[in-house]
Amino acid sequence: VDQESFKLSESGIYKVPISPTHNETLEYLSTLPLTAHPEVFGLHENADITRNIEETNSLLNRVLLTQTQLLAGKSTGSKDEQDIDPVLLICTEIMKKLPDQFDIEATAEKFPIMYTNSM
C-alpha cells in the first residue's frame, strides 16, 4: 500500500492515488464507479449474480406468502368469483397499466449507442 498506484483490486480500478493531496484524492474518487463491484469486497464477479438470484427468490417467496394469505381470506361471493386468484387479478391490472413493448431493433437504429454520450 506504500507504493504509488498500488492496485487494490485485480482490475486496477481501485488503487492508491498517486499524489495523496486533498484535491487530487477528491478527483480520483470522482473517477470511481458509482456502484460497488464485488471485487471491492474481495469477491468474485459472480457474487453479483448470486445476490440477484437470492433477492429474486426472496421476492417470489414473499409474493407466495401474500397469495396464501389472500386465498385464506376469500370472500363468500359466487363460485366463479371464488375461483379467481386475487394475485393474478392484481398482476393483470398492473400489466394493463404498463405500456406496450417497443421494437428494440427499430429503437437501436433510431438511437444508436454512442459511448461518448454515456454517463
Automatic annotation (TrEMBL):
It comes from the Eukaryota. Residues 3-47 form the Dynein heavy chain AAA lid domain. It holds the Pfam family AAA_lid_11. One of its GO terms (molecular function) is dynein light intermediate chain binding. Transmembrane segments: none annotated. InterPro entries: AAA_lid_11, DHC, Dynein_C. GO terms for biological process: microtubule-based movement. GO terms for cellular component: dynein complex. Residues 54-119 form the Dynein heavy chain C-terminal domain. This is Dynein heavy chain 7, axonemal. It comes from Culex pipiens (House mosquito).
